[in-house]
């Protein structure tokens, strides 16, 4: 497994992964939009929604991953995609919308980054963010438990992501930066064919830091144990399929 993201693995569940981006977009209090940036644009699936919603706006997108950017450029050749790190990037003050679907959970200090974005943009601009809030879900608890039980556990120390802070922390920080904040959670129940499908889902995201440090044999051993644990934690429905219970946090901050 390389350290870059795999666009094809990520797009295995493209519809399900894009649904929160659609749900976030549906809540934006914006009509006249001229400049939009898709932060952590991935393979351009979220950017595509932004272009469709505001076809006359200047939409751009950035990501740290060359593989994701290559895919995004193929999908939307008319859009400017560039490589940047959300933690170091600064928005142009006249941006109308900063959109970030499923990226800030990867940045440990993201609250300060988001607050700084709000401080930087003009009055009326909107910051729209969605993050998986699923560290307490079996998918993620079992990654750490499986890792701890492996003979190569020491290679995986520090692989787990930190849980998101409470929603009150976001609302306080973004309000203090000058925004009116709408925050909510949605729990999706994604139908999945079987336990292996759940493992495939997390392979391109939450499992990456657990698999990357392992050699092929270790990866196989880890995945077998992890899939068995997932199969127990997500019992089959009457037809044999499983429901992936998936909470996500949404934030819409409008600069006052
Ligand atoms: C789960 S994907 C989300 C892709 C897309 N926005 C969507 O709605 O499906 C997360 C993306 O965030 C990118 N990413 C992770 N850390 C980043 C950072 N610090 N700055 C910019 N992009 C980052 C990854 O490369 C990946 O493409």
TrEMBL record:
CDD domains noted in UniProt: AdoMet_MTases
Domain Methyltransferase: 36-124
EC number, as in UniProt: 2.1.1.144
Gene Ontology cellular component list: cytoplasm
Subcellular location: Cytoplasm
One Pfam entry name: Methyltransf_25
A Gene Ontology biological process term: methylation
Key words, A-Z: Cytoplasm, Methyltransferase, S-adenosyl-L-methionine, Transferase
Main localization category: cytoplasm
Source organism, top-level taxon: Bacteria
GO molecular function: trans-aconitate 2-methyltransferase activity
InterPro entries, alphabetized: Methyltransf_25, SAM-dependent_MTases_sf, Trans-aconitate_MeTrfase, Trans_acon_MeTrfase_C
Catalysed conversion reaction: trans-aconitate + S-adenosyl-L-methionine = (E)-3-(methoxycarbonyl)pent-2-enedioate + S-adenosyl-L-homocysteine
PANTHER family in UniProt: TRANS-ACONITATE 2-METHYLTRANSFERASE, TRANS-ACONITATE 2-METHYLTRANSFERASE-RELATED
Similarity comment: Belongs to the methyltransferase superfamily. Tam family.
Annotated function: Catalyzes the S-adenosylmethionine monomethyl esterification of trans-aconitate.
Entries under NCBIfam families matching the protein: PRK01683.1
Protein name, as recorded: Trans-aconitate 2-methyltransferase
This protein's encoding gene: tam
């Amino acid at each position: 497994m390389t350290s870059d993201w795999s666009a094809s693995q990520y797009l295995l569940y493209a519809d399900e992964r894009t649904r929160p981006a659609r749900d976030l977009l549906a809540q934006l209090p914006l009509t006249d939009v001229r400049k939009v940036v898709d932060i952590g644009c991935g393979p351009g699936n979220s950017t595509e929604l932004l272009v469709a919603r505001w076809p006359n706006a200047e939409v751009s997108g950035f990501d740290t991953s060359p593989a994701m950017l290559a895919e995004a450029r193929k999908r939307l050749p008319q859009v400017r995609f560039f490589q940047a790190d959300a933690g170091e990037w600064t928005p142009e003050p006249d941006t109308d919308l900063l959109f970030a679907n499923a990226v800030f959970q990867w940045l440990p200090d993201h609250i300060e980054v988001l607050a700084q974005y709000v401080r930087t943009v003009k009055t009326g601009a909107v910051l729209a963010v969605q993050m998986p809030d699923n560290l307490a879900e079996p998918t993620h608890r079992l990654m750490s438990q499986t890792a701890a039980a492996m003979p190569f556990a020491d290679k995986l120390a520090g692989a787990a992501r930190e849980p998101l802070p409470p929603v009150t922390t976001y609302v306080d920080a973004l309000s203090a930066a000058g925004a009116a904040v709408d925050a909510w959670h949605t729990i999706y129940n994604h139908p999945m064919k079987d336990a292996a499908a759940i493992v495939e889902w997390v392979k391109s995201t939450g499992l990456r830091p657990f698999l990357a440090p392992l050699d092929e044999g270790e990866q196989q051993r880890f995945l077998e144990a992890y899939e068995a644990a997932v199969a127990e934690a997500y019992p089959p429905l009457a037809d044999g399929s499983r429901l992936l219970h998936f909470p996500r946090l949404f934030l819409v901050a409008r600069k006052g």
